[in-house]
Design brief:
47% strand, Jelly Rolls, 264 residues, seven-stranded antiparallel β-sheet, mainly beta, 1 helix
Length: 264
């Protein structure tokens, strides 16, 4: 009898057409959450308990199984109207190469006139050689200054995890009421150069590596973290957020998520 494969052994396989590409994970949700979990907020910041609905495995607007994220239906007092899902690949030592994080998803809100959610987030939390970076691609649907106006623009975390640079690039992800039109997004980060790579939104190419004024987004402003056991950790996140004086419930349903590592 052969020994069962380890977790990382099972993940250490390549895409047939691209032998230099390793699959880190490739998740659909027929058999459960596949290691995706809710990211809870720090109680010292949010004192009113859980800030969002639990993750689900289906959504009425999407056929078939999907990882479902739903915000609260309320105005946002800080961070209370968000839902973030995270997958941890802790102690997965990766020191170079390009990480691609692909998401097949639909999104929408409870109101067809209030335009929610405000933001979609795609994130890679990477801890390489004792330095931690929060790479974030944030897509903004609605202009906070004029909630009747759709912005559809991209922001990148830069310098710090909560400091953003406006790329001036826009994407028209289809917002089709709650009919669940599916979109595709690929986030890329080059760990060899510590820069964003060429990303893709449906058929649109987004060269975020060419955006000026972007520096590696160091956690806590310095890239330090308290627990050395986090070193070499690699986490992936998707999120749906509401911001503004009047918000409606927003949702995001992911039918497939995949991460790969390829040569730089």
């Amino acid at each position: 009898m052969t020994a069962p494969q380890s977790v990382f052994g099972a993940m250490n396989r390549s895409l047939g057409r691209y032998p230099d590409t390793e699959i880190l994970f490739d998740d659909t949700f027929e058999s459960g959450f596949r290691g995706w979990q809710e990211l809870h907020t720090d109680p010292s910041v949010s004192t009113s308990g859980p800030t969002f609905a639990p993750l689900g495995l289906s959504h009425p607007s999407v056929p078939g199984p999907a990882l479902s994220l739903v915000t609260r239906s309320k105005a946002d007092p800080g961070i209370h109207s968000q839902s973030i899902a995270m997958k941890r690949l802790s102690h997965r030592e990766i020191t170079a190469g390009i990480i691609d994080f692909e998401v097949w998803f639909a999104y929408g809100g409870e109101s067809q006139t209030g335009f929610s959610p405000r933001y979609l987030h795609f994130m890679i939390d990477e801890m390489k050689g004792g330095t931690r970076h929060f790479w974030k691609n944030r897509w903004r649907l609605v202009n906070e200054a004029d909630t009747s106006a759709l912005a559809k623009n991209w922001y990148l975390s830069s310098q710090g995890e909560d400091i953003y640079v406006d790329t001036t690039l826009t994407t028209d992800f289809p917002w089709n009421g709650n009919k669940g039109s599916e979109s595709y997004y690929k986030m890329s980060v080059n760990l060899s150069t510590l820069k964003y790579g060429v990303c893709q939104a449906n058929s649109q190419t987004l060269d975020f590596g060419a955006v000026s004024g972007v520096t590696p987004p160091a956690a806590n402003g310095s890239g330090t973290f308290d627990d050395p056991l986090f070193n070499n950790g690699l986490n992936f996140m998707v999120g749906v957020l509401n911001r503004g004086a009047q918000d409606y419930m927003g949702w995001m349903a992911c039918t497939r998520m995949r991460a790969t590592l390829r040569s730089a």
